[in-house]
């Protein structure tokens, strides 16, 4: 039912990649050229961009691991459940410097650059897309799962995506606690530690493991509370892991069947969205339209149960 390299999950923490005897032979992704809108990116360019994103994510991951016992909250952003530590801006600074040292003309949008709240987040991505003269925009969450990080829960990680002319062309989610690096380039598949990954094969909602969030904002929280009692009898089980990046990556490799959320920012979703699509899954808003970086309502799945999950959410009153 699941890709072989996603079976046999080790307990946290792990300093080496998951590799069981059933894992496929380790391979290196091969790249051709990718065309996005009016420009063509060569193989060498794609490899270089991916390499810088991986390097940046691993540097941030080292900082997260160095503070894995938990961190002091320095600020509460939108409300008491939306947290910031001293480590968040440090990780973002590290990622920014790593990327811009190689690509100084590229634009950069990080979570810590933006005032708290959904309106500010939505305005920030629109402004960046409108005034992006290089055509390249890096979209970064330095620590996705900050509440987990604060409490020493090893479900937190950097999430890095690159948009070219408004389309996500590259994504990296590096889980430093398991040493698992999820990568994707548009048109060239999705990988975990260079092993190809695919979404799960569940065809029935009753067989699905569905992830959802425990969001800090009141409207989103109310939508989650509406959905929960309606979905629980219909699915195998529901999981709330506290990191959108992790849940999207785990949909991409088949550990989860689907993940939905009522309101997320672009930096929460961008990298995971391309992982799921390149792993053979589906990414949309809650109306079923293909997700783009301006969408805030999201559903990512293996594709097979996508429509029936969206219908179940509508039946629950999630709109």
UniProtKB/TrEMBL annotation:
Keywords, alphabetical: Hydrolase, Magnesium, Metal-binding
Biological or metabolic pathway of the protein: Polyol metabolism; myo-inositol biosynthesis; myo-inositol from D-glucose 6-phosphate: step 2/2
Biased composition (Low complexity): 11-37
Needed co-factor(s): Mg(2+)
Binding site for Mg(2+): 111, 141, 143-144, 268
Cleaved signal peptide residues: none
Entry's EC annotation: 3.1.3.25
Superkingdom: Eukaryota
TM helices/strands, residue ranges: none
Protein name: Inositol-1-monophosphatase
Top EC group: hydrolase
GO function term, MF aspect, one: inositol monophosphate phosphatase activity
Family label: Belongs to the inositol monophosphatase superfamily.
CDD domains referenced in this protein's UniProt entry, alphabetically: IMPase
Region annotated Disordered, chain positions: 1-37
PROSITE patterns associated with the record: IMP_1, IMP_2
Keyword match Transferase: no
InterPro entries: IMPase, Inositol_monoP_metal-BS, Inositol_monophosphatase-like, Inositol_monophosphatase_CS, Inositol_monophosphatase_SuhB
């Amino acid at each position: 039912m699941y890709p072989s390299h996603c079976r046999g999950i080790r307990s946290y923490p792990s300093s080496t990649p998951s590799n069981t005897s059933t894992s496929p032979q380790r391979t290196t992704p091969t790249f051709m050229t990718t065309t996005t809108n009016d420009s063509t990116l060569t193989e060498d360019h794609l490899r270089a961009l991916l390499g810088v994103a991986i390097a940046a994510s691993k540097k941030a991951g080292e900082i997260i691991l160095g503070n894995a016992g938990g961190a002091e909250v320095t600020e509460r952003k939108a409300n008491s459940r939306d947290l910031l530590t001293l480590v968040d801006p440090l990780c973002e600074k590290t990622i920014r410097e790593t990327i811009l040292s190689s690509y100084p003309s590229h634009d950069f949008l990080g979570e810590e650059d933006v005032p708290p709240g959904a309106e500010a987040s939505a305005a920030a991505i629109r402004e960046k897309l409108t005034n992006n003269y290089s055509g390249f925009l890096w979209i970064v969450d330095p620590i996705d799962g900050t509440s987990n990080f604060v409490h020493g829960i090893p479900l937190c990680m950097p999430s890095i995506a690159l948009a070219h002319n408004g389309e996500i062309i590259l994504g990296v989610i590096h889980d430093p606690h398991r040493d698992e690096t999820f990568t994707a380039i548009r048109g060239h598949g999705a990988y975990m530690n260079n092993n190809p990954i695919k979404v799960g094969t569940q065809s029935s909602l009753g067989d699905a493991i569905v992830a959802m969030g425990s969001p800090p904002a009141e409207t989103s929280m109310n939508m989650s509370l509406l959905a929960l009692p309606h979905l629980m009898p219909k699915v195998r089980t529901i999981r709330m892991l506290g990191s959108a990046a992790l849940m999207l990556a785990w949909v991409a490799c088949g550990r989860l069947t689907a993940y939905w959320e009522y309101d997320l920012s672009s930096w929460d979703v961008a990298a995971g969205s391309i992982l799921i699509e390149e792993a053979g899954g589906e990414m949309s808003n809650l109306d079923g339209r293909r997700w783009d970086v301006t969408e805030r309502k999201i559903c990512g799945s293996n594709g097979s149960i996508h429509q029936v999950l969206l219908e179940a959410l509508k039946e629950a009153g999630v709109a």
